[in-house]
């Protein structure tokens, strides 16, 4: 199966790039909310928590949009 691509004015961009940017935007919003409730004070390594959340969001978006 060929990976889906988007044609933007003759430039072929992988669809996963768009999903990765959308996941990053969702993570940025989630990070703000998590900081306000103090979630990062109870985590051992906040950077790994962010990475795990990013992977979960990206996986969820790819399951929704890429068939």
Structure notes:
This protein is mostly helical and 67 residues long. The chain is 64% helix and 12% strand. A two-stranded antiparallel ribbon has the order 1-2. 1% of the residues are buried. The mean pLDDT is 91. InterPro entries: DUF1656 (IPR012451). This is DUF1656 domain-containing protein. It comes from Thalassospira povalilytica. Keywords: Cell membrane, Membrane, Transmembrane, Transmembrane helix.
Which percent band covers the strand fraction?
5-15%
Strand order of the largest sheet: 1-2
Q: Provide the low-confidence segments as ranges.
A: none
Quaternary structure: single chain
Give the N-to-C terminal Cα separation: 11 Å
Q: What is the overall number of helices?
A: 2
Query: What is the C-alpha radius of gyration, as a whole number of Å?
Result: 15 Å
Transmembrane segments: 6-27, 47-66
Pfam family, one: DUF1656
Protein name: DUF1656 domain-containing protein
Organism: Thalassospira povalilytica
Quick tags:
DUF1656; 2 helices; transmembrane helix; 12% strand; single chain; cell membrane; mainly alpha; membrane; DUF1656 domain-containing protein; 67 residues; two-stranded antiparallel ribbon
């Amino acid at each position: 199966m060929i990976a889906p691509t988007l044609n933007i004015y003759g430039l072929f961009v992988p669809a996963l790039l768009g999903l990765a940017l959308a996941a990053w935007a969702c993570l940025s919003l989630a990070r703000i909310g998590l900081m306000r409730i103090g979630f990062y004070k109870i985590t051992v390594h906040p950077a790994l928590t962010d990475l795990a959340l990013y992977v979960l969001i990206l996986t969820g978006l790819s399951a929704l949009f890429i068939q």
